[in-house]
């Protein structure tokens, strides 16, 4: 089963306080089997690295920990989607009062008709309104 993965779930794997969240555990389990694919919008690549860097600055992770984590997730079947469509993206952001960044994940899940893995409550609520199944 393919699914859309957002940065909140990805980064939960890096930080101990969120690593046991049921959605994070389920997504990790699906990807670690090697048979599942997670789709992510292009901004995911930058978002993950930015939050890891902010974590370094706050003392939550070392630079070595960042590099080790990036190596670990590079082994997972995470596919970066580079397709861009303004109309649906902006409409979702307006309708649900989301950032364009968050709406990019939801727009991808809608376009590909895939379940969505997120820890963001606002984004999860918007997904439910849009009838996008959440990974649980």
Which class in CATH terms?
A: Alpha Beta
CATH topology: Rossmann fold
How many discrete structural domains?
A: 1
Structure annotation, total helices: 7
Largest sheet: 4 strands, parallel
Which structural class do you get from the secondary structure elements? alpha/beta
Structural Rg: 14 Å
How far is the N terminus from the C terminus?
Answer: 13 Å
- Give the strand order, joined by hyphens, for the main sheet: 3-2-1-4
Q: What's the name of the CATH homologous superfamily?
A: 5'-nuclease
Q: Please provide the count of β strands.
A: 4
Instruction: Output the helix-strand order.
Output: EHHEHHEHHEH
> What fraction, in percent, of the residue positions are helical?
55-70%
CATH architecture: 3-Layer(aba) Sandwich
Shape from CA axes?
Answer: globular
Contiguous low-pLDDT stretches (5 residues minimum) are: none
What's the rounded overall pLDDT mean? 93
Per DSSP, what share of the residues sits in E-state strands of 2 or more residues? 5-15%
């Amino acid at each position: 089963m393919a699914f859309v993965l957002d940065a909140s779930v990805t980064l939960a794997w890096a930080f101990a306080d969120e690593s046991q969240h049921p959605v994070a555990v389920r997504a990790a389990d699906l990807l670690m089997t090697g048979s599942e694919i997670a789709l992510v919008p292009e901004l995911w690549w930058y978002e993950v690295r930015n939050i890891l860097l902010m974590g370094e600055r706050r003392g939550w992770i070392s630079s070595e920990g960042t590099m080790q984590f990036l190596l670990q997730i590079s082994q997972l079947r995470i596919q970066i989607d580079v397709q861009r469509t303004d109309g649906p993206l902006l409409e979702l952001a307006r309708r649900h009062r989301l950032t364009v960044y968050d709406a990019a994940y939801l727009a991808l899940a809608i376009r590909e008709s895939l379940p969505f893995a997120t820890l963001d409550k606002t984004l999860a609520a918007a997904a439910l309104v849009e009838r996008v199944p959440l990974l649980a």
